[in-house]
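Pipeline run #58 for the internal structure catalog. This entry was flagged by the ingest filter as a single-chain record with no existing model, so it goes straight to prediction. Upstream metadata was stripped on purpose; only the residue string is passed forward. Reviewer on rotation: M.T. Logging verbosity set to normal.
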Amino acid sequence: MSMIEAEGVQIGRARRGPWRIFSLLALVQFVVVLDGSVVVVALPSIQADLGFSATGLGWVMNAYLLVFGGFLLLGGRAADLVGRRRLVFVGTAVFTLASLVCGVSAESWHLILGRVAQGLGAALAAPAALALVTDVFPEGDQRNRALAIWGGMGGIAGAAGILLGGLLSAVAWEWVFLINVPVGAAVLLLGRRMLPASQAEATGGLDAFGAVSGTGGLCLLLYAVVNGSELGWGSTSTLIGFGAAVVLLAAFVVRQSKATAPLVPRLLFRLPNVVFGNAVNALLGALLFGGFFVSTLFLQQARGYDPFTASLLIVPMNLAMLVGSQAATRLMGRFGPANALLSGLLGQAVALGWWASALDAEQHVLFATVLPATVWCCGLGITIVAAYVLCTSGLTGSVAGAASGLVTTTFEIGGAVGVAVLTTVADRRTAALLGDSTADAVRRAEALASGHAIALWGALALAVVAVALTLWLKRSGPVEGQQDAQEA
């Protein structure tokens, strides 16, 4: 950028005020994160109207999570190549139009396509918006404050999404998506006057093949898992799905090993904290999205609560996550991020065991879900913050940015995998108990509760795996060793 252009940006920024610009960019991030949770409470209504199967319903969440996570790193690279302001507009426009498609969907496949497009728009807009925040605020206290607020948006948007989803789906589930249209239009109109100009800040290629092959391979892998549980593991479509997934994922690995500008710098794969930390982070994504998926279906399908009441019962879980995230700072300051992560995971394991044991169609909902799930979410809040710090500590510059993007990517993709696996486990158990006969309401509620309880035992197994990975990580050396590796 020339000196004249830079002065123009500074003058425009001064006229608009950095915090006004931040508010608009934060709205973009808020809506993108909110869209991952706002749909949760509406899922039973969507299933009833569009005819999704129990396992197919998971794709309403998975289509968004997989594409968002799979293309997030590509979006960050594209923002540097084509300009951050421009990509905020493109991503927001795609997200807004996709939300309209979702809201007017008359068939299940219409909704899934709309969710795919939503995920792509979010993957383009979110990293570009964050990059603009760092442009607007110079290094110092104000930028740190802005980034701290930005980081807390996840918990706030998650809690707001559950409540808003309950309110909107009580009217009609379509409004869960249509509410994004006026918000997106406002961002596009206000952004033309408020957002500062930005130029391309990088040269080189855009590894679209890497993003497409990696994300496509994961989608086909999840399709094969879900399809195998419904049609059989030896069915032709299942075997084709697995085969195609292997080919695409292998192509992704080969591409990343040879690309001059890979989506993830190869240096990161030599850092134990990044490798093990992101493996744990993916499991945390599976626990969060899978756990909330199970809880909302139990409350509405097995217990018969309407969407708004179910959303109110879930709110304590979101608040507990906020409490846990605040406690994580103190725990990390005293014991270090790895020990804070371990303590949160152990707390989650205990809470998940309690929740799975207590989940029953006749047990009072306070003891069957709300109390154990709230304790679980407190531990989840601790671990999400600790895992992020663990994956990014000791890194600077572009490597730090890539590591931050990788954390979000693994979390979103892990969430998609968690929803697919835990939903499949629950559905198989429920189907086995019901058989082919038409069950009465009481028997059906009991079968659903049993299926969801089995899914929670599966979540407990994921938490145990995360504990084992964290213990392994603690044996691999201190976090400070990352800086040495970066400089090597």
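catalog note: The chain has three domains: 1-198, 208-260, 264-488.
catalog note: The mean pLDDT is 83.
status: ready for reviewer M.T.
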